[in-house]
Design a protein that fits this description.
The radius of gyration is 19 Å and the shape is globular. It is built from ten helices and nine strands.
């Protein structure tokens, strides 16, 4: 095969980024519940993203907020509640009567849901539970398809040291004064991290190129707009996190 033919063969191959469901199929089901993850995987998502925190008795549960106020029928801080107390709550009714009785799941349950079906990105929300979350991943033998991510560079570095075989991404939101692409990539490389996970507003062609040059993965969150999905698909980011994975799959698969 000639060099030009080889190049053409690769450039003509269809491309789409991985599509990861943000807290499961959260546009239509209660976020971070088993039904939301089941729906996302059934729709064909490549995997899901979830958030973890530790209970007062050291169990790792999947919930975004530090309190249960927004997504359950009760109030209180996760870190001050036992697993038994957390599991007694209704985590589905707030989204719709048909979801009544959904519970705040254990990380182990969410990992089990993904076995042989998709990847799972585990965001460390409670910075004190990193080691325990890794232990749960160990117990579920999920190293080949689970990854960790965090807004804390220190937590990311700690995770890499604790379990070097587990991929880790630094989550970043630039806001009004975003870091230049080169500085962002340096942060990832300095921590021996596999990827950057950035807001879609922070994605530029320069950042895509720099990540490619340095072998750093580029994850993008949270994208539910057709036009922006199409733009990111054309930019060939590595994966897109969406509340509406069916939409993301449709847009990105259409090219």
């Amino acid at each position: 095969m000639s060099a030009s033919t080889h190049s053409d063969a690769f450039s003509d191959r269809p491309y789409r980024p991985l599509v990861m469901a943000h807290r499961g199929n959260s546009a239509f089901a209660p976020e971070n519940t088993l039904v939301a993850f089941e729906q996302a995987l059934a729709l064909g998502a490549d995997g899901c993203e979830c958030d973890v925190r530790g209970t007062a008795d050291g169990e790792i549960v999947v919930i975004h907020d530090a309190t249960v106020d927004r997504t359950t029928d009760a109030t209180g801080a996760i870190g001050e509640m036992t697993l038994e107390q957390v599991r007694a709550l209704d985590a589905g009714s707030w989204k719709g009567a048909e979801f009544a009785g959904q519970r705040v799941p254990l990380l182990a349950e969410v990992l089990e849901t993904h076995v042989g079906r998709g990847m799972l990105y585990v965001e460390i929300k409670d910075y004190q539970c990193t080691q325990r979350a890794i232990e749960v991943i160990d117990q579920c033998d999920a190293h080949e398809w689970a990854s960790l991510c965090s807004f804390s560079h220190d937590v990311c570095v700690e995770a890499r040291k604790l379990r070097p075989e587990l991929p880790v991404a630094l989550i970043y939101s630039g806001g009004a004064t975003p870091k230049p692409p080169n500085e962002l990539v340096k942060l990832a490389l300095a921590g021996n991290l596999q990827a950057l996970s950035v807001t879609h507003a922070d994605v530029t062609p320069e950042l895509v190129v720099r990540c490619r040059q340095c072998g750093v993965g580029l994850w993008v969150w949270t994208v539910d707009d057709k036009e922006r999905l199409a733009e990111l698909n054309l930019m060939r980011v590595d994966n897109i996190v969406s509340n509406d994975p069916a939409l993301a799959l449709r847009v990105c698969s259409s090219g």
